[in-house]
Design brief:
The structure holds 2 protein chains of 2 kinds. By secondary structure, chain A is an alpha/beta fold. Helix content of chain A is 36%, strand content 15%. In chain A, the strands form 4 sheets. In chain A, strands 6, 7, 8, 9, 12, 13 and 14 form a 7-stranded mixed beta sheet that branches. The radius of gyration of chain A is 24 Å and the shape is flat. Chain B has a domain of 61 residues. Chain B has 2 helices and 4 strands; from the N terminus they run ββαβαβ. The chains are: A alpha/beta, B alpha/beta. At the A-B interface, helix 1, strand 1, helix 2, strand 2 and helix 3 of A face strand 1, strand 2, helix 1, helix 2 and strand 4 of B.
């Protein structure tokens, strides 16, 4: 909304942005990154979602209208350049406690102590990449800052990473800067958090956990790389809490989930990296944002036919408003992720099912009545115009959503078979699964290759 | 007597990175809204359709000569086509002879 206003202002057309009370701080912070710190906003009192039509109309007529007029006729302002340090400046000298106090005060820390980023430590990280320190991998919104190799190393040090994790950190920022991922949405209200899936020989070489406790903090590589992701979002993309980050609840950063490729090889299933377009021998990161998830404990059954109905039912129960990423807010961008413990994957594979067969089953069985699908769209979007038949007739969704006029016909939660993602990890000998509810185009799955330096020796 | 700190001494680097955006000026404001064309841009969220209806009503009371281009002309500014819609926006505004824009909903 503000990005649209910024385009208009730059085109010479005055704008007024409608902002509810709770978003005024975010609007102010985002405007700086857009180069228009005085971007005019008109207050919408309270939140429209909690107001009756009468109350909303009253608020717009009594408050918002006057502010819109003022925005379009009186606002003025010139973007001022913010005075900041240079990229490689030393910003402070002092002891451990003083450094950490400063980083907290400057909002450069996530609330935990950071490892002081000294030049010697940063240079140790830079020895694990063949790229130049000032190379820019992209420019990250909302702050519009350059994603440089140097800044990756600094934040990697702070997060408690080891220098040899640097190739992974570089790949992560490449993925973060991929427009298809949509980093600019990382401060939205659903507060989804990114899950990083790691594939390739580097999992073993650097000792990533992919067994019990795979989503638990406590293993240095998994934990510190996960922390790096959030620090980089904060310091370079600019997602500061109560400012550009408006998660209603939010999640803590997730540790890296490495896949169990030994089991995948044994059962003949492709790792996530291959499904993202790489070779099985490649080292890769795959990222996507998830609004939450749930464990499906003790999935009973020794055959796919017994196991899969339980998984399909669990996928349905993890999704509600997210279907707006299938139809409406976006089209075909909902990508549910299912983590299968190795023993579950093995039992399914022993029944002769490929990974593709599992996804096909999910597409055919993860379905809800059309009436409910349309209801959830209307309620969530607060815009009562969604109709699956009209969407199909307009060519925006496939026929599977409109096989009949029966409002109780079953329609899928996603657009196609390959929208489902499946990874194998976790306790090898426990029959559990984990379903992640995806944040759609506001954190769409993307992957990047991990480029090792010439001197790699692990 | 222990009076010596084990707190160390660190020369620490800046963890951020240079901003890549230059400060810009706001567009010139309007003397009146009478006779002007105002474009509505919407992200299809949070009852914006009702908000724009009420705004039209309120603005027409003070400026009877104002006209609006409905939000449906542009599509969802926060949907899957966001980048393309924003890239096309300057050209579309010119084609439509737009004088001003109201963009919602930041909620």
């Amino acid at each position: 909304m503000l990005r649209a206003s910024a385009v208009c202002e730059e085109a010479g057309v005055p704008s007024s942005s409608l902002v509810s009370q709770g978003f005024l701080k975010l609007a102010a912070a985002s405007s700086i990154g857009l180069g228009l710190p005085s971007m005019p906003v008109a207050l919408v009192p309270g939140h429209p979602g909690a107001q009756s039509p009468t109350m909303l109309r009253h608020n717009i007529l009594e408050v918002t209208t006057a502010e819109v007029i003022k925005n379009l006729m009186q606002a003025s302002g010139t973007g001022q350049t913010v005075s900041e340090p240079q990229a490689q400046d030393i910003v402070f000298q002092g002891g451990f406690d003083a450094v950490n106090q400063l980083f907290l005060e400057k909002e450069w820390s996530d609330g935990l102590p950071i490892v002081p980023p000294t030049r010697a430590k940063v240079e140790a990280f830079l020895r694990y990449t063949d790229r130049k320190p000032d190379e820019v991998l992209g420019v990250l919104l909302p702050d519009n800052r350059a994603a440089t190799i140097w800044s990756i190393a600094v934040n990697g040090v702070m997060a408690g990473c080891r220098p040899e994790y640097m190739p992974i950190l570089v790949a992560l920022v490449q993925a973060m800067a991929d427009p298809a991922y949509g980093v600019e949405h990382s401060g939205n209200t659903p507060g989804g958090e990114t899950l990083i899936i790691l594939n390739g020989p580097i999992v073993q070489q650097l000792g990533f956990n992919y067994r019990e406790n795979v989503l638990r903090d406590g293993f240095q590589p998994n934990t510190s790389v996960g922390r790096f992701w959030r620090l980089y979002l904060r310091n370079v993309a600019g997602f500061l809490l109560h400012k550009n980050d408006k998660a209603t609840f939010g999640n803590t950063w997730r540790v890296v989930a490495a896949e169990n490729e030994e089991v995948l090889r044994a059962i003949g299933w492709s790792p996530t990296s291959v499904e993202m377009g790489f070779q099985a021998s490649d080292n890769t990161v795959t990222i996507a944002r998830y609004t939450g998830g749930n464990l499906i404990a003790s999935v009973s059954g020794s055959t796919p036919e017994e196991i899969m109905p339980i998984i399909a039912d669990a996928v349905i129960r993890q999704h509600s408003w997210q279907i707006t990423f299938t139809v409406g807010g976006a089209y075909g961008t909902l990508r549910p992720l299912i983590l299968l413990s190795p023993i579950l994957a093995e039992a399914i594979a022993q029944g002769g099912w490929s990974k593709q067969a599992v996804k096909q089953y999910l597409f055919e069985h993860v379905r809800i009545p059309a009436r409910k699908f349309e209801y959830m769209l209307r309620v969530w979007a607060e815009k009562p115009i969604w109709n699956l038949t009209e969407e199909y007739q307009a060519g925006r969704i496939p026929k599977v959503f409109c096989e009949s006029d029966d409002p109780d016909r079953l329609v899928p939660l996603v657009t196609c078979v390959d929208d489902f993602m499946i990874a194998v990890t976790g306790d090898p000998l426990r029959t559990n699964a984990y379903i992640f509810a995806h944040n759609g185009r506001l954190g769409y799955p993307v992957a990047a290759s991990i480029d090792l330096p010439a001197n790699w020796n692990f | 007597m222990q009076n010596q700190s084990n707190d160390g001494h660190y020369e620490v680097l800046w963890p951020r990175s240079p901003m890549q955006v230059q400060g810009k000026s706001l567009a010139k404001r309007l003397d009146t809204l009478n006779g002007k064309i105002i474009v509505q841009l919407w992200d299809y969220l949070f009852k914006g359709d009702q908000v724009f209806d009420a705004l039209e009503e309120g603005l027409k009371v003070k400026f009877p000569g104002v006209t609006f281009i409905h939000w449906s002309v542009f599509g969802n500014t926060h949907g899957a086509d966001e980048r393309q819609i924003l890239a096309d926006l300057p050209k579309r505004l010119k084609e439509l002879k737009a004088d001003a824009v109201i963009s919602g909903m930041g909620c």
